[in-house]
């Protein structure tokens, strides 16, 4: 059953984080829309064509779009699954192939819907997950879908066309459940996947299945304790939602052997970050569990650009000051000679 008319307003606040080089942050509220709706939301995907967010319900098999004003529309409602207490485990947008990928919890079903009409075009059962999916990512080049298991250390690569087909199963050495996942199109494509209970991040070759743990630089033994979501930027850095209270900005040397944690943010009050997503690989947004606020996270690239501009202005000012001083000295010297 597809529902296209607006049915609720969810309270959304967009907060701007201006991050310094330490954990301190400055928060500015951009807008807030109040509502007493009891809907419970999670996950965060971005549709670059329609320019809106896509979120999932954590207490029913429903998916919503959310405008930048905070208006939520129910676009998918699988009422047949609601009978067995089903809910949506994860969502992803494949804007290249115009598909919305939805993973359902108890049944371990992954389905593809047309991104314009929201009509279901394919679904398949994944019993190999042995439980609810943890996260979903898409290879935008060929449309292959990667699904993590929230109970086991496996990632399934599937193709959602026709009846659907299982292409490959990746097994991690550590068999603990997995959560957030992103796919990186490179000369040697790979996925980055997060282990929910430990906060470890693994790099897995999407073709050969070669797996290695991404280690932190410095003294920290764990990158993101109890991490729940990761988002990829165009510069191949990550924004991570960790421990449901921290947002981390991770930067790699390109090999993902080791990464640096550049920004460590403690979310204020009782807010908890439960999802994170980049908007076309640029700005990162995080979803809070308190009144379903959406935060705009100032990424390290923005900070570097700001610092670069400040440094450039300072250098120009210094150069002008030196030039002015030299001109004054020349002028004073000429006056003395006269």
TrEMBL record:
Transmembrane segments: none
Gene Ontology cellular component list: endoplasmic reticulum
Keyword Signal part of the UniProt annotation: yes
Organism name: Rhynchospora pubera
Ranges in coiled-coil conformation: none
Keyword Signal annotated: yes
Keywords annotated in UniProt: Signal
Matches recorded under PANTHER family: MESOCENTIN, PTHR31460
Signal peptide annotation: 1-24
Name the record gives this protein: Sodium/potassium/calcium exchanger Nckx30C
């Amino acid at each position: 059953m597809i529902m296209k008319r607006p049915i609720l307003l969810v309270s959304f606040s967009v907060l701007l984080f201006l991050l310094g080089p330490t954990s301190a942050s400055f928060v500015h509220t951009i807008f807030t829309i109040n509502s007493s709706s009891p809907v419970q939301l999670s996950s965060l995907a971005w549709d670059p064509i329609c320019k809106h967010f896509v979120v999932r319900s954590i207490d029913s098999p429903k998916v919503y779009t959310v405008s930048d004003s905070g208006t939520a529309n129910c676009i998918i409602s699988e009422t047949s699954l609601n009978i067995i207490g089903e809910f949506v485990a994860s969502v992803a947008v494949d804007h290249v192939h115009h598909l919305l990928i939805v993973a359902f919890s108890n049944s371990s079903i992954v389905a593809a819907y047309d991104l314009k009409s929201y009509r279901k075009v394919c679904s398949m059962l994944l019993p190999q997950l042995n439980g609810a999916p943890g996260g979903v990512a898409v290879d935008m080049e060929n449309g292959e879908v990667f699904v993590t298991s929230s109970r086991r250390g496996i990632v399934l690569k599937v193709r959602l066309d026709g009846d659907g087909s299982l292409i490959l199963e990746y097994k991690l050495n550590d068999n603990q459940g997995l959560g957030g996942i992103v796919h990186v199109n490179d000369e040697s494509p790979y996925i980055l996947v997060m282990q929910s209970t430990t906060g470890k991040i693994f790099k897995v070759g999407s073709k050969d299945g070669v797996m290695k743990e991404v280690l932190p630089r410095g003294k920290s033994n764990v990158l993101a304790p109890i991490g729940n979501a990761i988002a990829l930027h165009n510069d191949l850095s990550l924004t991570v939602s960790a421990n449901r209270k921290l947002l981390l900005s991770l930067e790699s040397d390109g090999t993902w052997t080791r990464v640096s944690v550049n920004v460590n943010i403690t979310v204020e009050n009782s807010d908890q970050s439960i999802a994170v997503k980049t908007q076309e690989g640029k700005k990162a947004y995080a979803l809070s569990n308190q009144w379903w606020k959406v935060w705009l996270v100032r990424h390290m690239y923005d900070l570097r650009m700001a610092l670069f501009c400040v440094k450039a202005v300072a250098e120009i000012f210094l150069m002008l000051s030196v030039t002015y001083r030299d001109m004054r000295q020349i002028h004073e010297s000429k006056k003395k000679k006269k």
